[in-house]
Amino acid sequence: KSSNLIVRSHPDFKGALVVDAIIYNRASFSQPFPLLELRFADPNGQLIASRRFKPSEYLSGEMAGKAEMPPQTPIHIALDILDPGAKAVNYSLSFRSPE
Question: Residue 83 sits in which domain range?
Fold first, then answer.
């Protein structure tokens, strides 16, 4: 599960964005961290840009290098990405199998 998905202009780099979110493993057991897929679409729902992130790309701090996502633990992620442009007004974050 993800929550608190926020996309904002990068404070230091022009033409870049910062994506913040909280992810949770809602299961009662640890499981592998997923691939995260970030998608941007225009007002008509047409895909403008998408990218998948491996755990090694989105985990930092005490979670960096971990293979298993602990149960019922909120994990903050922050991604620096290139701005896909003014037409990319809708965005979503989804989970994909790491295999």
Answer: 2-96
